[in-house]
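Design request, tokens follow.
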């Protein structure tokens, strides 16, 4: 099927070689990937592109987030804050090192 698709398009179809790995990882980590799953089904000849689009459009509406946006934003701010503190500590250490080296060179 892959070769057929590439012949029809006339060039390499990006991402098709990664499709089996993406499906395997989604299954292993229990991650729902409906678009990727439909592309996989199309490539394997299980559904037509029209059927895939209909199936995707008829899915029940639900949030794709496992946490509230507020929780995600809060966690991201904590992560950024920790990175900033680590950066400031590294910067302070570098300044002390420069003073130390300068002290040695001067005396």
């Amino acid at each position: 099927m892959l070769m057929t698709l590439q012949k029809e398009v006339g060039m390499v179809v990006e991402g098709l070689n990664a499709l089996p790995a993406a499906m395997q990882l989604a299954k292993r980590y229990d991650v729902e990937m409906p678009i990727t799953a439909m592309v996989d089904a199309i490539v394997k000849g299980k559904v037509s592109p029209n059927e895939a689009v209909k199936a995707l459009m008829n899915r029940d509406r639900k949030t794709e987030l496992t946490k509230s946006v507020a929780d995600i934003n809060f966690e991201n701010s904590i992560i950024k804050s920790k990175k900033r503190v680590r950066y400031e500590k590294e910067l302070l250490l570098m300044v002390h090192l420069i003073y130390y080296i300068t002290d040695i060179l001067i005396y």
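Comment from the thread starter after seeing the answer: thanks! The CA atoms of residues 39 and 68 lie 29 Å apart.
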